[in-house]
Design a protein that fits this description.
The protein is about 75% helix and about 0% strand. With about 270 residues, it is an all-alpha fold. Helix 2 crosses helix 8 and helix 12 (about 210-225) packs across helix 13. It is a multi-pass membrane protein.
Length: about 270
């Protein structure tokens, strides 16, 4: 256990040093994040009460709705890009092969290498919420425990999809369809920018096949309306089911990808 903690700390420290070597980019991302929030704040002013019937289940305020959407959808982006980009970066630096011949399990290496990305994503979510509160979003009745449970399950689900994406990159190097498929469908059908009830009923079926839908729905109810765990049971149950399917599938896929790349001698090719 202590050895795993030391490895995790080493990966985080390494990623932090790399990130801080590009300080301008780091602060530029935070700067534009603030402008992104302001954009939706004024869009919400423009919309006013026009979409009230669709937003009523979430408290009726569009800015609060979309703030949660753009904040927590960041975890999907980190998961999809983080794992595959980590594999690709290590390939380009020539360190992937050396890392995979160490006693540390391959799945542990790919997971630990993205820890910093999730830490930074969590920092961004916190900033989103703080700025949102300063702009009038009310989180006074938030059920923090329920939100943390949903967040944990969300990270597990999204990370599994990210590992599947990394497995594809490991074998085929380019043209990852998993990344493109989940990025595009989740933003459109996952309820990031608008309630899925706006969609035609036949398209809502697509929404119900995505973890993003249950994650954002549960997070909004927990943070904006203080739903109890019992009331959030449908969202939590769906995320548990997704996790039970995606976690073993992603780990098997990644181990197969590593084994295939080693056998073909393409581990360092990119």
């Amino acid at each position: 256990m202590f050895a795993t903690y030391r490895k995790a700390l080493s990966f985080v420290k390494r990623s932090y040093i790399l990130q801080m070597s590009y300080k301008f980019e780091f602060f530029l991302r935070l700067f534009f994040m603030f402008f992104n929030i302001l954009t939706y704040y004024f869009v919400a002013k423009l919309i006013g009460t026009a979409g009230m019937k669709y937003l009523e289940p979430y408290g009726g305020d569009y800015f609060s709705f979309v703030l949660i959407g753009i904040a927590f959808s960041g975890y999907l982006m980190v998961s999809l890009r983080g794992f595959s980009e980590s594999v690709r970066d290590e390939q380009m630096m020539g360190t992937l092969e050396a890392m995979l011949v160490t006693p540390t399990d391959a799945s542990a290496i790919i997971t630990l290498s993205t820890l910093w990305s999730f830490i930074f994503a969590s920092f961004r979510v916190l900033l989103y919420l703080v700025i949102g509160v300063l702009l009038g979003v009310s989180l006074a009745g938030a059920n923090v425990l329920a939100a943390l449970i949903i967040l944990g399950l969300t990270i597990v689900c999204f990370s599994s999809i990210g590992i599947l994406s990394a497995s594809f990159i490991m074998i085929f190097k380019r043209g990852d369809p998993i990344n493109m498929l989940f990025m595009s469908t989740s933003e459109l059908f996952g309820g990031v920018f608008f309630p899925i009830s706006v969609l035609p009923s036949w398209l809502q079926t697509v929404s119900h096949l995505l973890p993003m839908t249950y994650s954002l729905n549960g997070m909004r109810h927990a943070l904006l309306q203080g739903y109890t765990l019992r009331e959030l049971a449908p969202e939590i149950g769906a995320l548990v089911l997704f996790s039970a399917i995606l976690v073993p599938a992603s780990l098997l896929a990644f181990r197969y990808a590593v084994r295939k790349a080693k056998m073909e001698g393409t581990l360092v090719h990119y």
